[in-house]
Design goal:
Order of helices and strands of chain B: EHHHEEEEHEHEHEHHEEEHEH
Number of helices of chain B: 10
Number of helices of chain A: 12
Helix content of chain A: 40-55%
Strand order of the largest sheet of chain B: 1-12-11-10-9-8-6
CATH topology of chain B: TIM Barrel
Order of helices and strands of chain A: EHHEHEEHEHEHEHHEHEHEHEH
Number of strands of chain B: 12
Oligomer: heterodimer
CATH architecture of chain A: Alpha-Beta Barrel
Distance between the termini of chain A: 16 Å
Chain lengths: 340, 357
């Protein structure tokens, strides 16, 4: 029997009151965005809303709880954007979306930061206070995606830069408080696939990060299916699960990859659309899970993580909350026995 | 194919002093007077005594002020600065049946947008812009241009819950834009600008935008000038395809990156008229007349003077108002000086931009 775990990739939409309040406190210009040295007032505002989004996940019934990443003004580029040896440059497009982030330009060595660890410490305190059963899930950009989103002005060559980002993320993970799961988000593996040689190195960088934690590591991919060769290399990474975008139009390619190259004992399925307000019913979400199962008759999963396909910050808050509840309900539906 | 672009002469002012005529215009949005922003806040405050009628009156006042400000700057065609519009998708989504709003979503940092959802097939209910056009053309002495957010952008910058594909949604919206333009034309409009900024972000969809334009201009008289505005993109990905669009004028932002992309339009030959951005809307520094004249000459590398329109790169709403005004004023002065120099034969049209020494 496959265990179903309701979760989320993290990077939540800011609660509506927070949008105005933090905008007033911080300002609208690119220099006003998160720096890692926020004033006490801003820190305290984020604390309030962090608790709110954790409570929201507990109320929805998720099995893993994320910190929400509300501070991540630059989305997946955040861990670099707040680093002391990184300068934030112009506003650049975030993948193929009508969203933008500040170009993180790495100008010196990527030393230990601890920024994400302190967010997770705060989330842990809230979970302890709530006496929650659900475990903490950490979220980070995967090393290849962070490499792809950033600009190198220090390391000089691609290989050294990618390795340095892998080492940096591993150092961050090492400082994390206890967490049950670590999601590494790797949309760049789909959107801007690594060239020959870099694909192998991307996998090794994931290994470096994964080795820094005892938690289950899930490498989640989205915005479509992986190219076959990229998938083959990703399978070499020593992680618990790979995550797939089941909403995207090219999901048959994903099933082909899994059929041809196998997958890990567990998998993450992005079954709810993180970029559309149409709220899928738990039954629809369940059908998507059973569809994957039925298409992969030789594959048995120990565990399936169920979530939105993408980060959910694209959504308005009300629809996001509804999607979290639907995912939690879908995870509670008994997996039907698939007969051949 | 482009429409026959012989509908620009109607915008030449009667007292125009030179034989040459570079049509001067703006893209649309303009900084709102400070009091209008305060009034908008009041109108949203339930405890305030400010009524909807008061707000209407305030909008009328603002449109009057900004239309006249455009005329004072010397523009040949004017708009009302989009004083009644909050945002380029929201304004239309609010008026089209089939859209609903669920709350703001992030664009970047703490900049948000009330991205609507299309939850059922879109239909035309009441006119979107006819009242606005009638009001402005009553105020204006110059011809009034009407900017309309294009169907592709109205589809692409919304959540699509109702249609199988975004393409089908865009075509339905294009039919609605066509209905709206028919009504505007009945009301006297002769210059329509379709704004499609989303094309710049997803240039591979240029064929969809072309098919939308076919629907938009269907049965629209050729005396009506149809422009298409696109901004901030890699134009090599939509050129020469735009040459096949049924438009009179292609309005493009190029000043922003110092005309780095102008050569894209040099080969093959540019088919529609070119409306060229000659002042940057993202810098508060007012370009000198001399500088703007150099920018206009860049346009003459692509089209002859009788096919060149000059405008700011994009809407100027993010600039301080006095800066926006000075940019327009200098732009018009520069255009008039270039026209005089063309009359005098002082500009070599085979090589309008002198080669670097």
């Amino acid at each position: 029997m496959t265990e179903r775990v309701a979760t989320t990739p993290g990077l939540f939409p800011l609660p509506d009151p927070a949008k105005q309040q933090l905008s007033d406190l911080k300002g609208h210009q690119k220099g006003d965005l998160i720096s890692g040295n926020e004033s006490e007032e801003i820190v305290s505002s984020y604390e309030t809303y962090r608790a709110d989004v954790i409570d929201e996940q507990l109320a929805a019934g998720l099995d893993r709880i994320v910190e929400g990443q509300l501070r991540w003004d630059d989305m997946l580029a955040h861990p670099l954007a707040v680093h002391e040896n990184v300068e934030t440059g112009g506003i650049v497009r975030y993948y193929d979306n009508n969203n933008f982030y500040r170009d993180p330009q790495v100008t010196d060595e990527l030393t230990f930061s601890g920024d994400v660890a302190s967010e997770l410490e705060a989330a842990t305190e809230i979970l302890e206070d709530r006496d929650a059963d659900a475990g903490l899930q950490a979220t980070l950009p995967g090393p290849y995606s962070l490499f792809d989103l950033a600009t190198d002005e220090h390391y000089g060559d691609e290989a050294a830069f990618l390795d340095a980002i892998g080492d940096f993320l591993a150092g961050e993970v090492d400082a994390f408080p206890e967490h049950e799961t670590l999601f590494l988000l790797e949309p760049s593996l789909v959107e801007n696939p690594p060239a020959d040689g870099v694909d192998e190195r991307a996998s090794e960088a994931i290994d470096t990060v994964a080795a820094a934690t005892d938690a289950d590591v899930v490498v989640h991919t989205y915005f479509g299916a992986l190219e076959e060769k990229v998938y083959a290399h990703l399978m070499d990474a020593d992680v618990s699960a790979l995550g797939f975008d089941i909403v995207a139009g090219d999901r048959d390619q994903t099933l082909y990859n899994i059929s041809e190259y196998g997958t890990k004992d567990s998998a993450a399925l992005g079954i709810a659309d993180g970029q559309n307000t149409l709220v899928e019913s738990p039954e629809t979400l369940n059908e998507r899970v059973t569809w994957v199962d039925a298409k992969l008759p030789t594959q048995e999963f120990d565990r399936l993580y169920l979530s939105t396909n993408t980060e959910p910050f694209y959504l308005p808050v009300n629809k996001h909350e509804a999607k979290l509840s639907a995912i939690a309900e879908a995870a509670d539906i008994e997996a039907e026995e698939v007969t051949a | 194919m482009s429409r026959p672009a012989d509908n620009r002469e109607q915008f030449r002012p009667r007292d125009h002093e030179t034989d040459h005529f570079l049509l001067t215009t703006v893209v649309g949005s303009y900084p709102k007077p400070k009091w209008l922003n305060r009034v908008n806040d009041l109108a949203n405050d339930e405890e305030s005594k400010f009524t909807h009628e008061h707000l209407e009156e305030a909008h009328d006042d603002a449109c009057r002020v900004i239309t006249r400000e455009h005329e004072r700057a010397g523009l040949d065609t004017v708009v009302d600065g989009e004083m009644r519009r909050n945002e380029m998708v929201e304004f239309f989504a609010d008026r089209i049946d089939g859209y609903e709003f669920n709350g703001p979503v992030k664009v970047w940092g703490h900049n948000y947008f009330d991205k609507p959802s299309v939850t059922e097939p879109v239909t035309y209910d009441e006119p979107w812009l006819v009242d606005e056009f009638e009001f402005t053309s009553n105020v204006a002495e110059k011809p009034v241009k009407v900017p309309i957010t294009g169907p592709y952008t109205l589809a692409n910058w919304a959540f699509n819950e109702a249609y199988e594909t975004e393409e089908e949604l865009a075509y339905d919206l294009a039919d609605l834009v066509n209905i709206e333009i028919e009504q505007l034309v009945d009301a006297g409009a002769r210059y329509i600008q379709i704004d499609e900024p989303a094309l710049a972000t997803t240039p591979d969809d240029h064929a969809i935008v072309g098919a939308c334009l076919d629907r938009i201009v269907d049965d629209i008289d050729e005396d009506v000038r149809i422009g298409l505005h696109v901004c901030y993109g890699d134009y090599s990905r939509i050129y020469p395809e735009i040459n096949d669009y049924p438009i009179d004028e292609f309005d493009v932002e190029l000043c922003n990156d110092g005309y780095e992309q102008i050569d894209v339009f040099a080969d093959p030959e540019f088919v529609p008229d070119l409306a060229l951005g000659v002042v940057d809307v993202h810098t508060a520094e007012v370009e000198s007349v001399e500088e703007i004249k150099e920018n206009i000459l860049q346009g003459l590398r692509i089209v002859p003077p009788e096919r060149l329109t000059v405008s700011p790169d994009c809407g100027v709403k993010l600039l301080p108002r006095e800066v926006a005004y000075e940019k327009m004023q200098n732009m018009v002065t520069a255009a008039r000086e270039i026209e005089a120099e063309l009359d005098a034969g002082e500009i070599d049209l085979d090589e309008p931009v002198p080669l670097a020494d």
